[in-house]
Design goal:
Layout: E1 5-8, H1 18-29, H2 35-41, H3 44-54, H4 60-71, H5 78-82, H6 90-101, E2 105-110, H7 126-129, E3 132-135, H8 146-156, E4 163-167, H9 174-178, E5 182-185, H10 189-200
Parallel strand pairs: 1-2, 1-4, 2-3, 4-5
Helix pairs in contact: 3-4
């Protein structure tokens, strides 16, 4: 069955590296390297709070306050400051445009971290870039919960076997594969452009 649909993650795929942004923030704040990861990902209570934020059950303000306390720093717009160095990766945005120009359906499947005070999508025209956009906090679901992949397929009105899914987090790939999707673990625009072109069978590189 031909692959006729591309589903993409946002942060870390259509943007520059989130890990690099975190390291830049730590340097600016005088924190040790890995301090954010330790406070964010290795504390079960903070992991649970982050998951609630991604599902839209908690607020960015609460997340900022609690992580700021854990790090011993000002919590004002903390997520916005952590990811201040994150920028759109124009080469990956161009891949989307070329895929759509080839007649593919394009879907967004993104774990949101809330939309205020920091909105990671600000300045990007989601409606123009995608046929369908599923932002986790608006649906009470988050990757890698199987239901969120089932929902994006329903919204796109395509079977999993027709889709390619790209994400920068390996844990988010197996549920997509279980539904028949081909997957790409994003590590660089160069590698992803090559793999997506191979899987989708369309030219995704810019014309020489």
């Amino acid at each position: 069955m031909p692959r006729t649909c591309l589903i993409v993650d946002y942060g870390g795929v259509l943007t520059t590296s989130l890990d690099d942004a975190v390291r830049g923030f730590e340097a600016r704040e005088g924190l040790s390297e890995g301090a954010v990861e330790h406070s964010w990902y290795r504390d079960p209570a903070m992991v649970a709070l982050t998951h609630d934020l991604e599902r839209g059950r908690s607020t960015q303000f609460d997340w900022n306050r609690r992580v700021g306390q854990a790090l011993g720093i000002d919590s004002t717009n903390l997520l916005g400051r952590i990811f201040a160095d994150s920028r759109l990766d124009e080469s990956m945005v161009s891949v989307l445009a070329r895929a759509r120009a080839c007649g593919l359906r394009i879907g967004l499947l993104s774990n949101s971290m809330g939309l205020a005070p920091w909105n990671m999508y600000r300045g990007f025209d989601i409606d123009a870039a995608f046929d369908v956009a599923l932002i986790s906090g608006q649906h009470g679901l988050r990757k890698p919960e199987p239901a969120v992949y089932e929902l994006i397929l329903k919204m796109l009105e395509v079977p999993g076997e027709e889709c390619v899914f790209i994400d920068d987090n390996a844990v988010n790939l197996p549920p997509a594969e279980a539904l028949g999707m081909a997957t790409v673990l994003h590590r660089s625009a160069e590698h992803s452009t090559t793999r997506l072109g191979e899987l989708l069978g369309v030219p995704l590189r810019p014309n020489p």
